Automatic annotation (TrEMBL):
Substrate binds at residues 11-12, 43-44, 75-76, 194-195. One of its GO terms (molecular function) is glutamate racemase activity. Its EC number is 5.1.1.3. PROSITE patterns: ASP_GLU_RACEMASE_1 (PS00923), ASP_GLU_RACEMASE_2 (PS00924). The active site is at 74 (proton donor/acceptor), 193 (proton donor/acceptor). Provides the (R)-glutamate required for cell wall biosynthesis. The lineage of its organism: Bacteria, Pseudomonadati, Bacteroidota, Sphingobacteriia, Sphingobacteriales. Keywords: Cell shape, Cell wall biogenesis/degradation, Isomerase, Peptidoglycan synthesis. GO terms for biological process: cell wall organization; peptidoglycan biosynthetic process; regulation of cell shape. This is Glutamate racemase. Pathway: Cell wall biogenesis; peptidoglycan biosynthesis. It is an enzyme of class 5 (isomerase). Belongs to the aspartate/glutamate racemases family. It catalyses: L-glutamate = D-glutamate.
Length: 276
């Protein structure tokens, strides 16, 4: 059998490229297909039903491209769509296909980042309101207190390339203050959104000493590496030519331009019409 299949990487838009960057660093040999649903992004404020519907359509598109494994490199989609896809769709419609998210692997290691057993979680409204991090972390670490803060202005600032400018400082401070006001014991902050690593220089400059920032890319990449080692039935289907393909439901030229903020290599994408 010729193994030519790719790992699918899905995000609502560009943000998943931060996670994909870490995956490609740690697992450079595999073939990848990245799909960004830019035409319908951002997902952060959409309802559960809408996010589930959109995510499922994109996952099915990646399956149709020959991806036996799809990573939801999007916190909002992982929070609102993953469980239903894993439990209600895959076993009946796509046995043998796998979909993994970013919340579980992050929750699994979060205990090693806190001494005070108090973690701050910053994400979109969708991620925060889903309480997925609260549930996953409490399940694995009942002793850890999780304090959440939604940051609805951060994604638009980054997508408009304003995150490096002075205007962004106001919203960085506002959400950090709102989070830290909820507890003096927070000693680690999880950036639970694909976009937020781009704000690290500003967040780190404002953060009081002794509080650690946790980005997800490397955590998710490390977890995928272990998953592939433990699942030869999936791993053996994958091509290893180091190919990367990029697709977007939005404008391809726009995608290529914006992608450079999120991804270290040149991105040449193709537009896909999902016909919804
Ligand atoms: N990718 C999303 C996440 O990680 C952020 C962008 C959006 O709201 O669509 O939550």
């Amino acid at each position: 059998m010729i193994n030519k299949k790719s790992i699918g990487i899905f995000d609502s838009g560009y943000g998943g490229l931060t996670v994909f960057g870490s995956i490609a660093d740690q697992l450079p040999d595999y073939n990848y297909i990245y799909f960004g649903d830019n035409a319908r992004a951002p997902y952060g404020d959409h309802s559960y039903e809408t996010i589930y519907q959109y995510t499922l359509e994109c996952v099915e598109w990646l399956f149709a491209q020959g991806c036996p494994l799809v990573i939801l490199a999007c916190n909002t989609a992982s929070a609102k769509a993953l469980r239903t896809i894993q439990q209600k769709v895959l076993p009946f419609k796509y046995p043998g296909y796998r979909v993994l998210g970013v919340i579980r692997p992050t929750a699994e290691v979060i205990g090693s980042y806190t001494v005070s057993d108090t973690i701050g979680v910053m994400g979109t409204r969708g991620t925060v309101n889903s309480e997925s991090y609260l549930l996953e972390i409490h399940h694995l670490y009942p002793e850890i207190k999780v304090i959440q803060q939604s940051c609805p202005m951060w994604v638009p600032l980054i997508e408009n390339n304003e995150h490096v400018n002075e205007g962004a400082d106001y919203f960085v401070r506002k959400y950090i203050d709102n989070l830290l006001e909820q507890s003096p014991d927070i000693d680690a902050i999880l950036l639970a959104c694909t976009h937020y690593p781009l704000l690290i220089p500003k967040i780190a400059a404002y953060l009081p000493e002794g509080i650690q920032l946790v980005a997800q890319g490397e955590i998710v990449a490390g977890s995928l590496k272990k998953y592939l080692a433990n699942h030869p039935e999936i791993e053996s289907q994958l091509g290893k030519e180091g190919k990367m393909q990029f697709y977007t439901s939005g404008d391809d030229q726009d995608f290529n331009k914006h992608a450079s903020i999120f991804f270290p290599k040149e991105v040449v994408s193709t537009h896909v019409d999902l016909k919804v």
